[in-house]
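Final report, closing paragraph on structural work. Over the funding period we assembled a curated collection of sequence-structure pairs, and we close with a single example.
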Amino acid sequence: MPRTTSTLLLSLAALAVVLAACSAARDTRSADADANAAAAGCDASKVDYLIGENVSGYIERKAMKESGAEDVRVLKPDSVVTMDFNARRLNIHTDPGKVIIKLACG
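Its predicted structure, as stored:
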């Protein structure tokens, strides 16, 4: 086998190992974020029944109280948001018509 082919195969194997490690690290962070949110008292699964409802001030307050969150933000499809993680915040994701499509802590 020519040297360039061996070098290419070795490089591809090393790349595969690095990508696998990155993927595993991302899964761990996601699990850690979920654990932190649960420990902080925010539990979005408690308000999953609100999916399909139109978002309003009343729904925001209700979701915040029932999920145990200390803060709430509504995220529309075109919203610009910070990437900071706040385990005590409930994120209400909506479609363009302000219908709730997802609820998540963070």
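The longest strand covers residues 89-94. The radius of gyration is 20 Å. We thank the funder for supporting this effort.
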